[in-house]
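In response to the reviewer comment on reproducibility (Comment 2.3), we provide here a single inverse folding case reported in full, input and output, so that an independent group could reproduce the run without further information from us. The structure tokens appear first.
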């Protein structure tokens, strides 16, 4: 494998699949330690673990504390926003999120507020008005902590754009992860300063997806897996561009040296990069990967940008 430096900006490593649980049944022993080793071997230098609820955000922070290369977000996913009201005290719930974020920032582990946003594909889990209300409230956390935001947008572009634009002054930067929207929605997002677009396997399913992705300037792009979801499947338009593969077995025949079939892992971010670079006909894949890496550091790990600048300055003196 080529020595590329990669960062997965969105991995759901607290998901039960990494403990061997699928649909309420344990099919194999926990294997996260092997999943992470594959990621480091594949060139990842950092992984941002996604928080999607207060409970999950606590778990993500605890996991991030276990390895210097793991970081996390704190926030409430749109489909889980009923937890604010179910808590019995929505204001207290918001304060607990803020306290957890502040604590995680002090530990150098929380790098973004989220995953938050709007998801109108799954209104059965949370009504649209509840999603909008508590999406907007999470900008308060970003404003207080000065953190960037990790956004979710599904079939809700008009309302999402309205809310983000209204709160533009309250957050420093953000990324709309797992983007699957139209070219028009892409351009509307790119019109918002310091807003990036995150690409994963779900962003590369169809020919239209690939065309939309190709129109994202490299300086506004990040990459991710959203594992254990959003793998690049054999039916996807981008599959023909995948070069790096690993042996895989069904979950019932789990082997620590193999991937679990259809369960995405952070190491597979290499496949995302391969599809993007090949479709865009990038001649310098290393340079392309480096540009995406620097975008990610600029927003989530700004101290690295300062370090890189110092290195360049020293080399020129």
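Designed residues, in position order:
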């Amino acid at each position: 494998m080529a020595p590329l430096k990669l960062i997965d900006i969105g991995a759901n490593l607290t998901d039960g699949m990494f403990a061997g649980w699928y649909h309420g049944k344990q099919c194999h022993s926990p294997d996260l330690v092997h999943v992470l080793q594959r990621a480091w071997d594949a060139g990842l230098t950092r992984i941002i673990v996604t928080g999607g609820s207060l409970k999950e955000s606590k778990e993500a922070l605890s996991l991030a504390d276990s390895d210097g290369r793991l970081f996390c977000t704190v926030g409430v996913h749109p489909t889980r926003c009923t937890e604010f009201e179910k808590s019995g005290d929505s204001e207290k719930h918001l304060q607990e999120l803020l306290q957890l974020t502040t604590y995680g920032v002090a530990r150098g582990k929380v790098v973004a507020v989220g995953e938050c946003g709007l998801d109108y594909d799954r209104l059965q889990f949370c009504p649209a008005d509840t999603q909008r209300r508590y999406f907007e409230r999470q900008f308060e956390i970003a404003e207080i902590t000065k953190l960037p935001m990790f956004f979710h947008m599904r079939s809700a572009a008009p309302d999402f754009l309205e809310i983000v634009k209204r709160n533009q002054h309250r957050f420093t930067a953000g990324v709309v992860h797992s983007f699957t929207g139209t070219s028009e929605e892409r351009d509307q997002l790119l019109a918002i300063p310091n807003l990036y677009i995150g690409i994963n396997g779900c962003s590369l399913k169809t020919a239209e997806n690939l065309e939309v992705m190709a129109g994202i300037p490299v300086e506004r792009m990040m990459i991710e897996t959203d594992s254990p979801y959003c793998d690049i499947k054999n039916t996807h338009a981008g599959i023909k561009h995948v070069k790096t593969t690993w042996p895989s077995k069904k979950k019932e025949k789990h082997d620590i040296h193999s991937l679990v079939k259809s369960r995405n892992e952070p190491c597979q971010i290499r496949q995302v990069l391969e599809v993007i670079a090949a479709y865009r006909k990038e001649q310098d894949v290393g340079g392309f990967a480096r540009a995406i890496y620097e975008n990610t550091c600029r927003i989530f790990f700004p101290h690295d940008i300062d370090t890189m600048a110092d290195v360049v300055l020293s080399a020129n003196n």
